[in-house]
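Listing S7. Sequence submitted for prediction.
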Amino acid sequence: MSHDEEHTGGCHFEYNWVDGAESLEKYGPGGYHPVMIGDVLRGRYRIVDKLGFGGYSTVWLALDTLLHRYVAIKVSTADSPLRETNILRALASPGHDSITTPLDEFELNGPNGKHLCYTMIPARCNLREASFSRLFPLEVTRALSGGLALAIAYIHSRGYVHGDIHLRNILVKLSSDFDHLSVEQLYEEYGEPETVSITERDGKPLPPNVPLKAVIPLYLGKDAEDLLVSDAHVLLSDFGEAFAPDLEIRRGKDCHTPLAMRPPEARFEPEAPLSYSADIWSLATTIWEIIGMQPIFSTEFASADELISQQVDVLGPLPSSWWMHWRERSQFFDNNGHPKEGRYVWPGIESAFEERVQKYRRKRGCGFGREEATAIIDLMHRMLVFRPEERPTVKDILHSEWMVKWALPQLKGSSQTK
């Protein structure tokens, strides 16, 4: 789950801060359910550790004592409808092996309200955790990108937009032998649960809304460079922002994709409905992060307007109507649309690929060959187009040269090595 989803600004902090844990202030009416290691949910799921958290849920590793296997349990906040289960059920038929299918659904009643929960197969890690300051091997890069594109193609074919494609929402599957571990063996291999006692800032006893201990999420993953091509089987997660554009309107102003991956129409056409093309932009920025060391656009220490200036530097001029409505453009460009002197100008796609992908890969002896690099750059040019109606469909992407010659064959080969 994305830690970026935590929003605590402006609230009164009642509890002493626990680094790496969710916002403890959200343990109140309408918020998180207080789960503890050792709890048994629904009479069968024994909580053995925490896997993660987001703004609207916590995720736990549990042993299903009925079927003797491990599951991940997503426990929503009491004020969350967790509508993603409806979408996941719709996607379950005919189904796709890169889309999570709910195994069981139930409700918990607790001191903070009624919480919707569902179980799913646990994952090893998300790609952001695995790739932090690291590079995936070339063959893993291809397989991950091909698998992600196929997953998006399936979602679109079922009439849905994912709406939140980024590395934290792309998981790597656990090996099949994980279920063979007893809880004791699990703790021997990965360590006992890391817990920290929760205390009130004013020293008062804890209310029943709050667990006695905060649990720091367990990491089951591998580093990017250690992933094998046989590990490169993705699970696309977190369908909380998914929608069916043919049945409902999701306007640009309601887009919650992280800013660096957010399609520009969300900013410049806030009242216009989003569609499948919004996923194409986010898919492009995510594939770029899979293949390289640095993102093609970055919001690190950058405002929303600085991000737009980056996009113009890399891709060229905005559509004229967008340009005229962008009041802040004079901070970054002169009257002729040229970058103002003295500011850093982001490189175009070709130069960015050389500086932010190839440069780091060559240092490790794993750069892309010239033909493959040309195919990747061509695909990025086609996907990262400002006007959403001019972007390719995901079917077009699957028929692109890079997908056909490199990514999809590598993915097929990876499935045969399992």
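Caption to Listing S7: primary sequence and predicted structure tokens for the chain studied. The radius of gyration is 22 Å. The chain has twelve helices and eleven strands.
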